[in-house]
Fold:
Amino acid sequence: MGEITAGPGYAVGNLDAIGAGPGFRKIRRELGVTAFGMNAIVLPPGYDTGSHYHEHQEETYFVHSGRIAITFGDGTTHELDPGGLARVDATTVRNVRNIGTGDAIYVIVGGKDGYVGRDGVKVNPDGSEAR
Structure:
């Protein structure tokens, strides 16, 4: 899929449709996400993002491909392979470095003010609510 396709209440696409080369892929903007922040980052081998923290939003990192090391403000470093996850409080300092031999791609989801809870509603094949 080489483009973003939007319909009534949805959008689908592929990272390749959002950008090329290293750097940020603004998933939130391109898919129209409004409830939380969401980006993918493509890091070349050996690249280091620099340290940062946030004033408000907690973040969760998901490694899609490659290998990263994430170092926290307490000095600990954790290596994450594809499928690896990390949750980071807003004010915790973090730094990400690509420790693999190829590009590392990871997705970051950030938000504030908590979990909504289970609010899914089953729908019948005809579109009516299942009770």
Observations:
- The helical segments are 15-18, 27-31.
- The longest helix spans residues 27-31.
- Strands lie at 5-7, 10-12, 23-25, 37-43, 58-65, 68-72, 77-80, 85-88, 94-98, 104-111.
